[in-house]
Write a structure and sequence with these properties.
This protein has one domain: Immunoglobulin-like. It has no helices and 10 strands. The protein has strands spanning about 10, 25-30, 30, 50-55, 60-65, 70-75, 80-90, 95, 105-110, 115-120. The strands form 2 sheets. Strands 1, 3, 6, 7, 9 and 10 form a 6-stranded antiparallel β-sheet that branches.
């Protein structure tokens, strides 16, 4: 009996490696998710930095400001899989396992401080 082996790789078409010589780390660009009912806003600094670690299959998130309780939702847009977790941003950092398989991903960060999102691909 033969078993199929699925191997995933990651890339982000707008992102390069975060300045490191380690090609295993992909920067995820996080942007503010502007409410469609209030599109006129002054730009704000994004208080989140995120990197996807290819070989370890997780997203490392750093909170630059205290956003309080943050709901983090990871969606595999290709397969429809979803994973959600809540974290208190006062810890300053979060590790999010990416176990939803290969595909295009959207990661959302929601709190009373604001809503932010980013995209990355796992091949």
């Amino acid at each position: 009996m033969m078993m199929a082996l699925s191997i995933c790789f990651a890339f982000h078409s707008e992102a390069g490696v975060n300045g490191s010589s380690d090609d295993d780390v992909i920067e995820i660009f996080i942007t503010e998710n502007i409410n469609e009912f209030n599109p006129i806003r002054f730009p704000t600094l994004v208080p989140i930095v995120a990197y996807y670690y290819v070989s370890l299959s997780y997203v490392d998130v750093e909170f630059l400001n205290n956003m309080g309780e943050v709901t983090i939702t990871l969606n595999n847009l290709t397969t429809g899989g979803t994973s959600t977790m809540q974290i208190n941003s006062t810890f300053g950092e979060a590790v999010i396992p990416v176990g939803l398989g290969c595909g295009n991903y959207r990661i959302d960060f929601s709190s009373s401080y604001g809503n932010y999102l980013g995209y990355f691909t796992v091949l």
